[in-house]
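User: Hey, my collaborator sent me this sequence without any context and asked if I could get a structure. I don't really work with proteins. Can you help?
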Amino acid sequence: MAFYRRIRGLGATLVTSNLPFDEWTSIFGSERLTGALLDRLTHHVHILELNGESYRLATSKKARRRLGQGQNPSPKAPNEGGTSAEN
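Assistant: No problem. I've predicted the 3D structure and written it out in structure-token form, which is a compact way to encode the shape of the chain:
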């Protein structure tokens, strides 16, 4: 308990999932365990629910289209690695 009091409020934790909370029981197997976990995770939090197409899915679709057109399937964006001369 003393450790919890020291770290509380000093940092942030980000948890992401593509499953809604009501489907977490299928992952953890127990309603009781899932309820306890969600109770602790959602205490004093901000929940952001984002709905829309995945950026990775859209990028993958574009790469497949490029491949079908005979172009390079995975050109790197300037922030995706490589040396500055390559970008």
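In plain terms: The chain has two domains: 2-41, 57-87. You can pass these tokens on to your collaborator as they are.
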